[in-house]
Amino acid sequence: MNPNPNRTAYPPANPNPNPHPHPSPTAHPNTDLPPVAPAGRIGAVEKSVHAALRAATALSPQAAGVLAYYLFRRPFARGRVRSTERETHARASVGRITVNGKRVVTYRWGDGTDPVLMLHGWQSRTSRYAPYVPELLARGLSPIGFDAPGHGDSGGRHTTLLEYADAARQLQERYGEFHTVMANSLGTLGAFEALRSGVRTRSVVTFSAVSEPEYLLDYFSDRVALDPRVKAALRARADARLLAPETDIWLRYRAASDPAAVTVPILVVHDEEDEMVPADLSRRLAAAFPERARLLTTRGLGHRRVLSDVDLRTEVLAFLDAIPLPHRQTESAA
């Protein structure tokens, strides 16, 4: 029995060969897009962006596409440390690495033993994981993370999932294999690219997963009300430039583009009432890993409270507690 009526836990294996009504992401053609989440309240910045793009569109949809591409790559704001995060944030050991020529700020709590890599989302920062830090430390784990380029305290004006993966590799070189990679929202794409490129971990936890990069294009276009001609120009420019020289980026960089490359247990967490990222993205992600992934859904948390909810945190930590620590088992046997 599920002890919490607001939680729905899906086991990693199901006797029904098609446990989810949605097919695996790998089965979707490039034109099969997830539905865009309700936009919610449009902020002043987005209104200004919409006005600028509308004026540019009247002159030239192609020129507006260039402007849209410029804006698409850049966060509208940098996440600040919240009052509830300050004490934990202040206790971190702060470091620096360089990613694609950009200064990236790193954080570590603990001595680096059994590191847990925490990847934040768009317009966010590592301090959003503050509720998890003391719990991880109490288990002898070392929370680590970085503010992606263009986010938090790091340099640069924009980032890509390749830069997320590069930063993760550099932290692995410093601290060794990760006990867990935790990824929130956009961080999910960076996490799975890192794993495909050789980063090692014993488990993965995703929150509010943006698991298909094309959704980012749809969400941006919806938020700023792009003219279809401008969206087409934006997509063409992104195809040619965003992750050059890579091609077919919308399929190649889906989180589930190569399921065989990720062989560890995965906990996929998503709120059914997420106002920014539809839960279908997490359902498809979990369905792509039927033997390894467990889908855990919630209600009432939306997009922004999944990292702070106490009951959900208890369930996530129970998942982490089940992940073995080989070196500790060896020490106990000795």
Description:
This protein is α/β, with parallel strands linked by helices and 334 residues long. It has a domain at 7-17 and 88-214 and 255-333: Alpha/Beta hydrolase fold, catalytic domain (Rossmann fold). It is 36% helix and 15% strand. It is built from twelve helices and nine strands. Strands 1-9-8-7-6-4-5-3-2 form a nine-stranded mixed beta sheet, with helices on both faces. Helix 1 packs antiparallel against helix 2 (61-72), helix 2 packs across helix 8 and helix 5 crosses helix 6 (187-196). The chain is globular. The model is unreliable at 13-41 (pLDDT under 50).
- Which outline best applies? globular
Please give the count of helices: 12
Mean pLDDT: 87
- The span between the termini is 39 Å
Fraction of residues in helix: 25-40%
CATH class of the domain at 7-17 and 88-214 and 255-333: Alpha Beta
CATH architecture of the domain at 7-17 and 88-214 and 255-333: 3-Layer(aba) Sandwich
Outline the biggest β-sheet: 9 strands, mixed
Short description:
The chain has 334 residues and is α/β, with parallel strands linked by helices. The protein is built from twelve helices and nine strands.
Helix/strand layout:
Elements: E1 7-10, H1 44-59, H2 61-72, H3 86-90, E2 93-99, E3 102-108, E4 115-119, H4 133-138, E5 142-146, H5 161-175, E6 180-184, H6 187-196, E7 204-207, H7 214-223, H8 228-241, H9 249-252, E8 266-271, H10 280-287, E9 293-298, H11 310-321, H12 326-333
Parallel strand pairs: 4-5, 4-6, 6-7, 7-8, 8-9
Antiparallel strand pairs: 1-9, 2-3, 3-5
